[in-house]
Amino acid sequence: MRLVFAGTPEPALPSLRALAAAGHDIAAVITRADAPLGRKRILTPSPVAVAAEELGLPVIRANHLDAAVTERVAALDAELGVIVAYGGLVREPLLSLPREGWINLHFSLLPRWRGAAPVQRALIAGERTTGASVFRLVPELDAGDLLGTTEYDVPEGTTAGDVLAALADSGASLLADVVADVAAGCARDTAQVGEPTFAPKLQLTDGRISWDLPQRVVFDRIRGVTPEPGAHTAIDGARLKLLEVRPAPSGDRLPPGTIRLIGRDVLIGTADEALQLVRVQPAGKPAMAATDWWRGLRTDEVRVDAPENPTTVTGDPT
User: Please, what is the average pLDDT of the chain?
Assistant: First the structure.
């Protein structure tokens, strides 16, 4: 088919490459504009822009699918639009331009977790099964008919980044099959069934950990916000990023938010069993093993700042 593809981050790459490998005519790739990244704020193209240029595909850089983008897409005479994690909404008249409309690969089992952060919200909610869906775009958010789904059992301890990488691969295969069915005229539309849940974009504050909750709840939140926006706590007003955490191997208990070295492990208390800090990043310093960070404190015990009465947190907010 003659396609227009819209996507931006790493999870969209397997889909773009799968469609190119299948021999479809990708008339253009729409991606968000180059963005300043890192401490030096260097303008950097999106992962999809880099991959599209490597594949020799025309690239349209745009942060909004506005009238100018609509005019450019209209000139392409595409049969189908495909969107994977672009980061913006497709509205009329662009929605109706391709002859077969637009389809979207979404990383959840719809109608669960409609919205921008489905994997993250599913993990925070403690779900052990998720998946990917390909559906037809309609004006209502993520509400169109399903064209295919694939399930994924979430391995214990994996983060949102891990799950998203796995779904990007399995979802790309699903998407390629659906596009082949659309091309052959045998795609089957199925209405979504069930009560929708919603997955709004995460904010930095979603990563601030409340240690007075049960270990499982805290652990699932940390997994869900890793790597973005990142789990963190604060000690004397300085942010401590929690890069890798796991349940305490010995089942120790500590008061919520209390950090101690027990044996060779740096543990932090929750409402029941403790968690083990494995890798952390103090404000203004590189990532390090939690044991190295602890040795530098030269203390027997630390208490984190209370989330309900936060101080001004210093350090890199990203």
Answer: 94
- Which ranges constitute the DSSP H helices of the chain? 13-21, 47-54, 67-74, 118-124, 160-184, 215-224, 290-297
Query: Among residues 168, 166, 131, 134, which one has the least CA distance to residue 151?
Result: 131
Domain covering 2-184: architecture: 3-Layer(aba) Sandwich (3.40)
What band does 41 get if pLDDT is binned at 50, 70 and 90?
confident
pTM: 0.92
Surface-to-core class of residue 33, CB atoms within 10 Å of its CB (0-12 exposed, 13-18 middle, 19+ buried): middle
161 pLDDT above the threshold of 90: yes
Domain ranges, ordered by start, for the chain: 2-184, 204-303
pLDDT, average across residues 118-134:
98
Place of tokens 């295969």: 173
Residue 309: what pLDDT? 42
CA distances to 82, 102, 125, 146 from 96, rounded to whole Å, are 13, 8, 35, 18
> What is the signed CA dihedral for 234, 239, 243, 249, rounded to 10 degrees?
-20
42 exposure class (CB count in 10 Å sphere: 0-12, 13-18, 19+): exposed
The answer to whether 220 touches 123, Cβ cutoff 8 Å, is: yes
H helices of 92-245, where? 118-124, 160-184, 215-224
The contacts of residue 71 (CB under 8 Å, 6+ apart) are none
